[in-house]
Amino acid sequence: MKIIKLHYLLLILIFWSCTENNKPQLENQKQVVERHREAEQNATAKFGIALHGGAGFIKADMMSDSIIQAYQNKLSEAIELGHEILKNGGDAEVAVVEVIQVLEDSPLFNAGKGGVLNANGIHELDASIMHGKTLEAGAVAGIKTVKNPILLAQKIMNESEHVLLSGNGAEEFASNHDLDQVENSYFTTQKAQRALANAQNKSAYHIENYEENIKNYKLGTVGCVALDQKGNLVAGTSTGGMTNKKHGRIGDSPIIGAGNYANNHTCAVSATGHGEYFIKNVVAFDISAMMEYGDFSLEQATQIAIQEKLKNQGGDGGVIAIDFEGNISLEFNTEGMFRAKMDAKGNKEVKLFKE
């Protein structure tokens, strides 16, 4: 009996010794598994971002190579900045606002610094932002001194009980929240001045020779849509409106549901083009509604909205959109739309014209 007990104890000691010796190996295996699991999670993380710099009557032969390169560089700079924020786990709201600020600060686009002039030669700027998780939104219309309208829209969304502020009330809100304000002349560029002169010159000779430029009077609105790794969708849009617009005219960009919309259950949309048509058709919300109630894909919904509904009424323009799965659609019915996108894998696309 004693011999049996000794054998039993010896077996326990041997088993314990083997287990202890294998612990480092088991721990190493666990670490490897954890690393693979983290890598898989990162590889399958659903996030993405898209932006636009306006849609309109734009062709490659209307622009010099240097101007084309300038637009491509600025679009690349903006999309890469937004993607880096999302890749590092940042919020879609932050990415959208940062991207739009880059475009607002550039004189190339009809937003912020490059905003067009109204019929009185004054800049009146609009912007909006919407968060898909809470459906909170902020918008601003007809402002003249706020350097970055998208920042004011964001402030209204996050620190106000209102959605849309306009004119002097919006300016006062900006001042109370210490946002940068500038003279209206800060936004003026030679391009905007020429566009206004072209639009207001009614001579037959001028119209014949500048028809293409006149058609382009609404090009340049900027927008951004993003999906972050938390599954939140955000859309933002900023514009100077239409060249030679009447004082006080407000387009679709600050109208939630028309030129801008986001809902975590469906998609985020930013529009550009002839704003009156986007308002009448509630285009941004319509795309979301088709997905939610009609079971359409993002691609199907954007095509129906832009290529059928809008086009059949004579409306021109386009949208950028991203859904809750990270699918991106860049849809337009004009000769061109300045646009860029990046997915979770880092694939980047920057384009200006119709293909």
Describe this structure in words.
The protein has 355 residues and is an alpha+beta fold. The chain has helices at 2-43, 65-87, 92-104, 149-159, 167-176, 190-200, 204-215, 275-280, 283-294, 298-312; strands spanning 48-56, 125-131, 137-143, 164-166, 222-227, 233-239, 260-262, 267-273, 317-323, 328-332, 336-343, 348-353. It has two domains: 1-44; 46-353, Glutamine Phosphoribosylpyrophosphate, subunit 1, domain 1. The chain has ten helices and twelve strands. A hairpin with a 5-residue loop joins strand 2 and strand 3 (137-143). Helix 2 (65-87) runs antiparallel to helix 3 (92-104), helix 3 (92-104) runs antiparallel to helix 4 and helix 9 (283-294) crosses helix 10 (298-312). The longest helix has 42 residues, at 2-43.
Give a quick set of tags describing it:
single chain; 355 residues; alpha+beta; Glutamine Phosphoribosylpyrophosphate, subunit 1, domain 1; eight-stranded mixed sheet; four-stranded antiparallel sheet; 12 strands; 44% helix; 21% strand; globular
Radius of gyration: 26 Å
Report the helical percentage: 40-55%
Low-confidence stretches: 23-27, 204-217
Biggest beta sheet attributes: 8 strands, mixed
- What is the topology, as strand order, of the major beta sheet? 4-3-2-6-5-1-11-12
Overall number of strands: 12
Number of domains: 2
Average residue pLDDT: 88
Name the structural class.
alpha+beta
The CATH homologous superfamily of the largest domain: (Glycosyl)asparaginase
CATH class designation of the largest domain: Alpha Beta
Terminus-to-terminus distance: 90 Å
CATH topology of the largest domain: Glutamine Phosphoribosylpyrophosphate, subunit 1, domain 1
Shape: globular
